[in-house]
Amino acid sequence: MSQRLILFSRYPTAGRSKTRLIPALGPEGAADLQRQLTEWTVFTAHRWQARSPQTEVLIATSGGTPEDWQQWLGAVEVQPQAEGDLGDRLHQAFQAAQQAGKNRTVIIGCDCPSITPDHLTAAFQALETADVVLGPATDGGYWLIGLRQPQARLFQDIDWGSDRVLAQTLQAAQAADLQVAQLEPLSDLDRPEDLDLWQPQPQLSVIITTLNEAANLPHTLASIGDAPVETLVVDGGSQDETVAIAKTWGAKVIPSPAGRGRQFNQGVAAAHGSLLLFLHGDTRLPPQFFNHVVQTLQSPKVVAGAFQLQIDSTDWRLRWVERGVRWRSRWLQQPYGDQALFLRRERWRAIGGFSTGPLLEDYRLVRQLRRQGRIAIAPAAVTTSARRWQKRGVLQTTLLNQLILLGHHCGLSDQRLANWYHH
Fold first, then answer.
1. pTM of the entire structure?
2. What region holds the Glycosyltransferase 2-like domain (predicted)?
3. Binning pLDDT at 50, 70 and 90, where does residue 334 land?
4. Which of the listed residues 197, 215, 248 is the one where a domain comes to its end?
5. Domain around 46
6. Which of 4, 152, 191, 374 could potentially form a cystine with 102 if both were Cys, beta carbons 3.0 to 4.6 Å apart?
7. Rounded-to-integer distance, Cα 384 and Cα 313, Å
C-alpha cells in the first residue's frame, strides 16, 4: 500500500497570508497566525506519520522557495502547487500522486487547528472501501479530501470559498457514482469570528537516545503514553531488537553514529517541535510530564528545565544518591542528562547544541545554560535504571563520577576520562 498525505499551505508573507483576517490582526498578525497554524499542522502530520511510516508526507507550497520552507520547517519535502484555482491545484496534486504510484492520497489545509493524528488515520482507513473521503467543515466547505484515484469532476464548477463547496462536491460525487465516506465536521480558521478556535499549541519533541536498549525501551516509550508529542528514537547502531521495538511503538527512528551528544543533535535536526525534551533510553517519564514541561518553561527567566531523579532500585543507599541529586539540581542548578533535560528549540540553537565528545555532553550543556538564566526543576521525578550503580557499586560509581568532573576541570582529555568511565 502506497499512501501520500499532502498539506496545502501558503508561505507566511505579510499582506498575502490569511487576508480575510487582516482587518482583525493586521498584515503581520495574519502572517504570524499562518505560520503558527502551518507549524502545528506539520507537527501533527509527523506525529501521525510515525504511526504510519509507509506514508509519504509533503507540503504543497504557495510562495517561498523550497529553501525558505526547509529553513523554516526543517527536513520537510515540499512541492510547489500548480497554477489555477483551488480546484485545479487540488486535482493536479492528486494526479501527481497517482503518477508517483500512490493509491491513496489525502489532502488537508493548514487552517484547521482541530485536526489530530486520529483524524488522519480514519481518513486513510475510509479509503479502504470508499472512493472519496471528505472532512466536512462547519462553514460549508471541507477540511480534508482523500481519493484512491484522481476524480476531475469533483473539482469542476465548484464555488470555491463559498458555503456551497461541500454540497456541490457531494453532488458531483453522486453524479460520478462514487462512494463517499465522511468524517466528523470540524471548523476552519478563516474569518475574524473564528479566532477563538486557536490557542497557540506547545509542540514538544521527545528525543530518545538508544544503544542496545531492548530491555528498557518498551518501558520508556510506555511512559510517554498518549501525550501529544513527537517521539524520535535516535539509535547508535543497536545489535538487539531496539529499532524494531521503537517502530512497533510508533516512534520515528533516526540512525546515527554512536555518542549521546551526536545522537541528540541528529534527533533535533529531524524533530519538528518548538520544545525539546532529551531522554535516555533507560529512563521513564512521570505522569503528566507534558504539562510539567510546558508549565516549567512558561517563566521568561527559565531557560531550561529537568525532572527530579528516582532510581529504579530498593537499595537504601540509592536514596542518598537521589537526595544528593536533588540538592545539586535545586541549589546548584546542575541537573544531568538522566533527569530528562528540556528547553526551547531556539535556546538549544543559540548555544550550538550538544558537544559531540565521548562524555559530559549534558554537563557542558547545563553549564552553558546556567550562564543564560535559571534551570528549573519540575515537581515530578523520572525513573532511571539502576544498572550503572549495580554494575560498579553505589560508592564506587558516585566517586568515579566526581573524579571525572574533577579531571575535566583539571584539563584532562575527554578520551582519558572516557577510558576511566568505561573501565
1. 0.77
2. 205-330
3. confident
4. 197
5. 3-197
6. 4
7. 9
